[in-house]
Amino acid sequence: MQQPQDLNGWVAHLGAAEIPVLKHTARALEKLLADEDHLNARSIAHVVSSDPLMTVKLLRYLQANKRHSQTQELVQVEQAIMMMGFGTFFREVPASPVVEDVLHDHLVALVHLLHTVRRAQRSAQYAFDWALLLHDLHAEEVRISTLLTYLAEMLMWCFNPVPMLEIRKRQDADKSLRSASVQEEVLGFKGIDLQRELATEWHLPGLLLNLTNPALASTPRVQNVMLAVNLARHSANGWDDAALPDDYRDIGALLRIEPEKVKALVGGDQLIPAAKP
Question: Rounded to whole angstroms, how far apart are CA atoms 56 and 114?
Fold first, then answer.
């Protein structure tokens, strides 16, 4: 199949594509399905919401099959699975294909994808913890939105690995290059524009769309997500990364605690390498 050539083409292509999931997710769900004693909405939701690709696959299905009487968006995975029923979930939102098979011939791209997934997972956990500290009544929406912050990038690694590797190659060769500029040169559009279009077209959580709106950058919930994303990205380089002190200061301002307390809270007082996928 010929690859799309522009932003609109990619939005349409991804909208029709079967989103792959992590092999670990497929295996864990298969194991649950065979174990009636541990098969429940919570156990399924735990597996699904640990995988950003499986999560967006479920949310996209829910939007496409939304009841007319449903007035609120479902962003709580456990609630969604309870409403669907286990049979419908396993039948209509299959944990296939798996990314390890999709990228079998692009192993370097697979490594980059898995690193991106790991950053998304860590970001989501930070943001959720801070949302609870801030008494956010919609902490789960914060967590899901943060988990999907890298959605466009992850999907492009899955479906367009060669240009994505070219982008990474250029940035590795020149650290001063801005991501948006290189993306526009290689892909013909910016990643943030694809992210915005997918969030809109697939009716993903409103907070995810707010992240791309500069006018909302100073709101607490957007700050929470972006600070979590920054912390996960910088700490992935190791807990001695030069950008981390600024992260601790900004997070402290959000949570109204001292930067040193933030450092202890997130584990930055342990000078150990960040976890790798």
Answer: 16
